[in-house]
Every structure is written in C-alpha cells, then in structure tokens.
C-alpha cells in the first residue's frame, strides 16, 4: 500500500492508526510519495511494524525518501524497520552520529 505525501505528519498520523490493519494487509508499504514526516509519523511506522509482528506477518517498507531515512537514522530506529540509512545519518547512541 502506498502512503500519501503527508501521511507521516502529526496532523495525519491518527488516520494511519485508524487504518493500520489495512495498511499492513499486503505486507508492503511504499513510502516513496512521503514528503512530510515527523516523530508522530515515525511512531506510526513502528506501530505498524509491531502489529505485523504480533500477527506473525512480514512487513516491508520500501522507497523511503532521503528526508525520512535521515529522520529514521537520527532517531536510531531505521534497523527496526529494515530501512537502510546512509552512514552519515546513523545514530550511534553515544552522542555522535
């Protein structure tokens, strides 16, 4: 399923929670159209992954744009979602990146 441009923003994340089961149904979420993301959107992606794992279903996130990958790297959650980030955006947890 493809997410809309602003689906990972604070203003729209609640809609994502409401349709979480539909979003994870086919096991693939396309992120290439996402143009706006913030911490609420990151929380939504983590929740979608958690729900899929709980249901015993695989879930793949594909096509994450650079801004989203950078944000995921900053928060240190990219590996949890199976999304690669450039080395310069990886959070090491020791105060350095």
Automatic annotation (TrEMBL):
PROSITE patterns: STAS. CDD domains: STAS_anti-anti-sigma_factors. It comes from the Bacteria. Residues 29-97 form the STAS domain. Pfam families: STAS_2 (PF13466). Coiled coil: none annotated. This is STAS domain-containing protein. It comes from Sinimarinibacterium thermocellulolyticum.
């Amino acid at each position: 399923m493809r997410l809309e441009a602003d689906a990972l923003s604070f203003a729209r994340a609640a809609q994502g929670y409401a349709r979480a089961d539909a979003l994870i149904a086919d096991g693939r979420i396309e992120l290439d159209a996402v143009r706006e993301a913030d911490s609420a959107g990151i929380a939504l992606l983590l929740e979608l992954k958690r729900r899929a794992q709980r249901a015993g279903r695989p879930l793949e996130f594909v096509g994450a744009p650079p801004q989203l990958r950078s944000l995921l790297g900053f928060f240190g959650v990219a590996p949890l979602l199976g999304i690669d980030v450039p080395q310069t955006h990886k959070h090491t947890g020791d105060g350095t990146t």
